[in-house]
Amino acid sequence: MLPECQEILLENSDGVLTLTLNRPHKRNAMNAGLVKEIMSVFESISDDRSIRVVVLRGTGGNFCAGGDISDMNSTECDANGNLISAEQAAWHFSRLFGHMITLVNKAPQVVVTLLEGAVLGGGLGLACISDVAITDKHARFSMPETSLGIIPAQIAPFVVSRIGLTQARRLALLGERIDGEAARELGLAHYLTYSEDEMQAQLEDVLKHVKRCAPEANANTKALMLQVGSVEIEMLLDSAADMFSAALQSSEGQEGTKAFMEKRKPHWTL
């Protein structure tokens, strides 16, 4: 069951969960409440293969303007009600965001981002961990942290993984702002669109292709790919062989191969 949320909007339809960041007065900048709600949603669907895709987007013509600076600078109380320092509160907020982006990155569902308006800081980080990113030509991408005297602490590893060290250094150390076309060229986004209607049409095409693929096979493929570079190659290939043989004997594998032989679509596409 999906959780009740205040900072995000949820719509679940035909295997597609649309998660909309809903702080338009802040260009959907993330406070602790919003981050916790995203985590709660992804935790609630971690074993739910009926949800094939999660679409992340923002309200008010913006995707996400990063972290809410005013929230970062506030003091708070610990679990025992003791006041903690602003520095400690900032540390907790930073790591909370890191836990959230790691959780979304490892989600078994296909994660699609619709990028328009502000795609800044943590918003750019979310774009970097999406499986498919669709951008508007006029979206504004930036890592502005260094211009504020801070660092892109939790998103830096994901940006490097997405576009490589050389380009990540340029974006981070210059605080340079680029548009959707440049973002597509860098590999931040996969598809470039020029209007809201074109973005929706591209999304529908992506969803059509996702639904051709078996949900458990997609989940396992994603998990395998995320281990590349962190697990020794021979160990990874042994694990991949285990996963392959298990998949071939699974209900999905049996249905998929049978459908191929019978020249029909497997049941998950219907």
Tally of domains: 2
Average pLDDT figure: 95
Overall geometry: globular
Please give the share of residues in helix. Answer: 40-55%
Structural class call reads alpha/beta
Q: Please outline the major beta sheet.
A: 6 strands, mixed
H-E string: EEHEHEEHEEHEEHHEHEHHHH
If you compute it from the alpha carbons, what radius of gyration comes out, rounded to the nearest whole angstrom? 20 Å
Helical region count? Answer: 11
Termini separation comes to 24 Å
Strand content: 15-25%
CATH homology-level superfamily of the largest domain = 2-enoyl-CoA Hydratase, Chain A, domain 1
How many extended strands?
11
Please name the CATH architecture of the largest domain.
Alpha-Beta Complex
CATH class of the largest domain: Alpha Beta
Question: What is the CATH topology classification name of the largest domain?
Answer: 2-enoyl-CoA Hydratase, Chain A, domain 1
Low-confidence stretches: none
**How would you write the strand order of the largest sheet?**
1-2-3-6-8-11
